[in-house]
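pasting input
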Amino acid sequence: MFRKVLIANRGEIAVRVMRTLREMEIATVAVFSDADRTSLHVRMADEAEWVGPSPSAESYLRIDRILEAARKHEADAIHPGYGFLSENADFAGACEDAGIVFIGPSSQSIRRMGSKTAARQMAVAAGAPVLPGSPEALRGVDEARAFGARHGYPLLLKAVAGGGGKGMRRVDSGAALDSAFRDAASEAERSFKNADLYVEKLIERPRHIEIQILGDQHGNMLHLGERECSIQRRHQKVMEECPSPLVAGRSGMRERMGEAAVRVARSAGYYNAGTVEFLVDGSGDFYFLEMNTRLQVEHPITELVTAQDLVRLQVEVASGEKLRLRQEEIAWRGWVIECRVYAEDPYNNFFPSPGRITRLEEPGGPGVRLDGGVYEGWTVPIDYDPLLAKLAVWCGARESAIARMARALREYDVGGIRTNVAFFRQILEDEEFRQGRLHTGFVDEFLARSQPLQAPPELAAIAGLVAKHHAAAGASRTERVSTPRSLWREIGRGEMLR
Amino acid sequence: MNPPQIELVEPGVYSVLADGRSYEARVEQAESGVVVFIDGYRFEIEVRDPRRWSRQTGAREIAGRLNVVAPMPGKIVRLLVTEGETVAAGQGLLVVEAMKMQNEVKAPKAGRVISVAAREGTTAAAGEILAVIE
């Protein structure tokens, strides 16, 4: 087993990985940029090394500096977390060359899955269902037009090097194809320095359901079930749950999806943790979307339902151990919901809200897991993504898990910056959500139909009293109380226009 | 009925007992008053201070002129309008990037862009004036 592991990441995921390493009695090395000198992951680590200025291109994405830090601190292995270098085949390859274990799949597997068209071909070869689509990059808009003529509209143009919805366009008719193709290609070029596009048939209101897989370097491979990730905003997941309300209600569906995912991973010669993403249509048919060759942001929900520690399993198989766990030993117990708490203002078009956290009150009590990366008094920098923490709750059934999440969110109080906590409280009240009728367009439709949260009237009076009392200490006189801002409809319209 | 009891329990946090019920309220200083948070609900409370009032209003709107300010600290990645241009309400004026996300700052009202203070590639602080619309 390793003696010391460097975590090539920051924020909540660096903290989460360190927690397991500490339980395994493995020493931890943090890396940090200028902006992160006082970040929680640095405070928590046994050792720490500066790797550059605040922009991630000059620090967390610098393969040379990360490896130099690993050598200097004599780390045996590197955990990449998610984002940054986690799906960078060159980085995994550089670790292999330097004799430092990359806690993840081989650089070859990452490279294979990094191309969406190559991944698609692999899924086809493995017998996994895929949507009708172009097997390779389109040579031009005419190929997309021919596809549309044959398979009909709507269709979806996607970036071969894609991710996060960048370089993706829905096309509803042949007339709209030219401009959509141009926009998607230029966005793909800007985002990935690769303008190649491919085309797929579009499913209306699909669910996004993914399967967690895990393999060792001795040919053993298993799956840990699904995660429902249909609640997304701007193609980014914001809320996840396990089990999926759809999968839970259909006998054999988890097994069918799990087996398909394992077949795809096997055909890629994959080992370590990975996630196979599927789109699921209204009739429950599922189609391979892509494979993520890293630990997912939302991995805690699988951990809570299966009582496994995915980071520990990652570290064990990376060190060469055989998987002791067998497929038939994996059981799914209870229901878990997770919310991604972002520094953004749901009352102001979800604008990012970096700044100093003047107060932090985190939920606790029965069935609550909080994976955080911040502390009171710390300033959230503008340089990185706005994820502050992941709040997951576990309960016996979906309905009670919803009630538990509502309770936990009520306990959550972040001062000085804005967060999306109130947004989640409103989603939990929504009848469509409570019925489990989820799809990837859910948030847009929700914002358009939702009513502003109505504060109980006595709270406005209490607020006025407190403000007066507070001002008595200062000089100013307080007046007029306004009710909670009701911009939900406006936000909904704004979002629909995107 | 007893008058409500208000106790400061932590900096900026008050415990309120009113009619036998227990509330917790947190107060944050805002531009023109305070914001009180109770149970996650947000109440904006205006502070009437004649001096402050005139300065604040004066800075924001003079004779139909409206300052467009940065909603958050961030980098100006793209200007979408130039001085002298006529814009519709809701039209994108410029693109600000923070925390890996690009957001359009939109015109709060229709009018003519009489000045653009923002420069591409520079960083703006929250509340900084980016453009003026008349």
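fyi DSSP finds 18 helices and 23 strands in chain A.
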